[in-house]
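Backbones bend. We report:
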Amino acid sequence: MTFYHGTSSNLNIDKVILPPTETQIQREGWRHKLTDKVFITNSVKSAIMYAKKACDKYGGNPKIYQVEPSEDIEYINDAQYICGSAIIIGEKIYEGKRC
């Protein structure tokens, strides 16, 4: 299965996507659970939606990464999964408008 993570180009992620407990970056101010997890999806459409939401908060352009979970993954719902961290293995080009 192929997984993706949508984010903003302003967050300057290098090779590994880490959870909010390590980065202190969290898009949802209301989220108090699973802050030690990274959200990933197997849907490009969902990754684009999450990238746009990240841009709403942090500015920049939508950026979609193809990722590989570095730890056990857990199914949440629909196309959402969580893992401890995710290794970037590629970048999906998204020609979206600047947020």
